[in-house]
Amino acid sequence: MNDLLLKSVRPWGDESVDLLIRDGRIAAMAPHLTAEGVEVIDGKGHIALPGLVDAHTHLDKSLLGWPWYRNEVGAQLLDKIDNERQVRQALGLDAQVQSMRHALRSLAFGTTLIRSHVDIDTEQGLKALEGVIETRRRLCEVLDIELVAFPQSGVMRRPGTIELLDRALALGADLLGGLDPCAIDRDPKGQLDVLFELAEKHGKGIDLHLHETGELGAFSMALIFERIRAHGMQGQVSISHAFCLGAPDWQRTQALIDECAELGVTILTTAPASREVPAIQRLIAAGVPIGVGNDGVRDTWGPYGNADMLERAKLLGLRNNLRRDDEIELALGLCSYRGARAIGHESRRLKVGERADLFLATGETVAETVVTHAPRALVISHGRVVARNGEALLPTP
Amino acid sequence: MNDLLLKSVRPWGDESVDLLIRDGRIAAMAPHLTAEGVEVIDGKGHIALPGLVDAHTHLDKSLLGWPWYRNEVGAQLLDKIDNERQVRQALGLDAQVQSMRHALRSLAFGTTLIRSHVDIDTEQGLKALEGVIETRRRLCEVLDIELVAFPQSGVMRRPGTIELLDRALALGADLLGGLDPCAIDRDPKGQLDVLFELAEKHGKGIDLHLHETGELGAFSMALIFERIRAHGMQGQVSISHAFCLGAPDWQRTQALIDECAELGVTILTTAPASREVPAIQRLIAAGVPIGVGNDGVRDTWGPYGNADMLERAKLLGLRNNLRRDDEIELALGLCSYRGARAIGHESRRLKVGERADLFLATGETVAETVVTHAPRALVISHGRVVARNGEALLPTP
Asked: I need a labelling partner for B169 at 20 to 30 A (CA). Which of A78, B10, B325, B397 fits?
């Protein structure tokens, strides 16, 4: 069932080999393989790379499939949050449809594992989560999706949100989210206490958006560290964005980074060009697990996101001034198998015995494939062919 | 001669019109135009945008057409400078061939005006300049190229360079270049004195690379300002990169920016994600002219550059956190007609009477065209069709 022999591909840019896929795993990798009764695909000498991992996105927010959204939103975070709820309601957005469009585009680009936040708020309740859970169900054989119950509009400032988050975790969200306990909720102790209690109650991990910069972010992070210790949640907490780890005060920042490493806190970054960001080489040196994400795709927040994690590897390289080939390959690793490990999933390198999640792309070298975010000729996920020439083989709504 | 009627295009994303081009200029722009005996092209409702302007690149450095260059270069600026001279010699690079490849790729992306630095040093003398001048001659009917005699390896630290720069300006370089008078030459007074004297002697402008950050860059900039006043070169000097204008000390930085405005100093940026950079909206508010460039394209410095100024507009937007449609259109303007004005060239907006330098691209809105750096269906330069579907119509060596 679903066995494949992929001829003439160059894993991670190396010499050409054949790749035998059985039961969703790589069964053999060598030149001139043969296998009877198995579908054969000609890889045409393309580079084969491990399935991409989008460790931070928002499947419920995309406006893919809608006319161009003209962005005239204000500059503050709360402007964007309030605007989004209004637009969502005015358009009557269906999170199931939108998340399916977004997920299939990701898959067509070679992403086989997604961690997505989903908005939970007192206006729409669990509606978006139910929609994205349905998308996850429909795609479960070809795409791993884990979901974070995300209080985008705040926790303490909107009574009723806590109860919704509780129900979201019971309904099937894999992790509990949170957002700027100082800047948005203005009650850091309140928000973090309730979130950690709720996560412990459900035995689930936490992934917090932390946009707060400098000392404010460092303060929130210290409160998070305290609660990780108090609840014994070492290795179960991720912090998304973590701009405060890009602050210029070396010593102050290093102490925070070292504590992330000690507590097994995963840092998830989108490597934005316009913000302070944690330097990935510095995090790696300290032993902090790193994942990378595309964040929103064509939503009311901004038009740049396009679901392509190979382009994200390029942006990660540009942001971190990675110019050498080995550095660019590192960026790609973080956007694929290393990112998977950082969010607690099985690695998916191109090795015998590992999962057959991979894609074929043009390019002379791995670095060229990244900097051109080269067209993807073929995507294989969970051992099945799921996309060809940039188009998912499943119908897009 | 070369007259064209371009039917059904949307200038800057507006309603569809026809565009009559005569003698290299836009002669009429209205719905349902007719013209006898004139070639008619169907614009298919594509967005029409003004020709792009690459105000800072290096036509002589690209490795386009060569096998992938595996970058293993050291981290310092001097590592990269020394490495480049070695590679250039080892490969026997021909600046005429390389600049033609680079220029035609730019043209295929819709760029119709380029300011290029060309390395002048005591190893290769004027050889690269001669090659790029030949490329300029061959392309003069379709692409405006202005050349900066650029002492990449330093001025004072390599005796004989000054004489070469003198000859370069006599040979046909349009401007005189320079580079980090402190960090590279370690003799800021010496370098800047000789450069300003040489520029005055030839009656030519100056375009200086200034990578120096913080106080060091501010110091070099102050020396440049002094000499602009002493030589009466207001409005004739550009500073490329100018990272020191991205320094966090607001008051100190504002004083430098205001002095740029007062002296008519144009700031040229590539909007790198990994460096301090001048904020474009701040420069605009102060009245500083701004141009944008791609910098190197696939050279020994790094693999990211690809000659596409529409993608550069996107990177400019990402670096400056431009999310609104009007902000993204501003970024595009800086990469096209505003950039042309900033480096002393005729504007090229899509207006009757202006130059017929334009391209057609897919997209629902201008902002979408930018964020997707959409495929270019057609490029018209100096009134002629020069590229279709991303390929220049002239033969690439």
From this structure: B397
